[in-house]
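Can't paste images in this forum, so I'm doing it all in text. The chain is below; anyone willing to post the predicted structure tokens underneath?
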Amino acid sequence: MADRSPPRCCLAGATATGKSALVQALAERTGAAILSADAMLVYRGMDIGTAKPSAEERARVPYYGLDCVAPDAPFSTAAWLDRARAAQAQCEREGRALYVTGGTGLYFSALLRGLDPAPPRDPALAAELEALSPDELRARLARHRVTLPPAEAQNPRRLVRTLELLERGHPLPSAWLGAPKPPLLALTWERSLLHERIARRVDQMFREGLLDEAEALRAHFPEWSRTACQAIGYAEAFACLDGRLTQAEARERIIIRTRQLARRQETYFRHQFAVTWLPLTPDTRPADLLDRLQRLWA
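Text version of the structure:
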């Protein structure tokens, strides 16, 4: 597919900031489609634990980037980018705007910067590097006299991949070395308020049947892909089903992990993009926020 300018209507934000509901409402108002930029929403059947848009919401707005593969199948950023570009081409043919929203910074980076070509993985070298601690990885990287941006230097997976390329004599992608930051719009809440929203979301997931969903998924897919296994909520639900955690303990662990994820997401956005933050408070009127977003994207 030919290269095209990236979509300009992108709204990021940490988990539970309310970005999905906001973009859904605006898409219904304007007739736009939505592209999900969330690495966990690509998995079929993982609905409650990922807060995936409901069937009713998807009936009102065309969606892309959802339910791409089963939980036991691998799925890469490059595969998502292919689908994103196909969605953009489809919307251009239809004369329809495409809104992009989600919390996976790597997806936004690929969409707005593109993906630098990189050679295939070296399984033996990768296994050797993955056995090292983050401090050991950074020490090994220092011997190559390469400095990564702070957010990248704290990401063990990026450290492993960087060392794989360097030790095989390949150049690093320009985005990893601090190339100019693309602009991005993002929602944000004061930390304690976001924590309250996260707790309410976790409680809602249990009410909607997270444990039943996890049990059914495990029956159909005993082995999950490496990325799917990282989905917050499912490991805790499995532990609860197996009697290794009480529901209260599972709830607390999900809340803690989600808070940690939200912090990592905002850190990634801050370091990798020229972010325009839209701060929210309990006094923010949804209608005013909707109007503001529509003006920004007009």
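The chain is about 50% helix and 10% strand. The longest strand covers residues 183-189.
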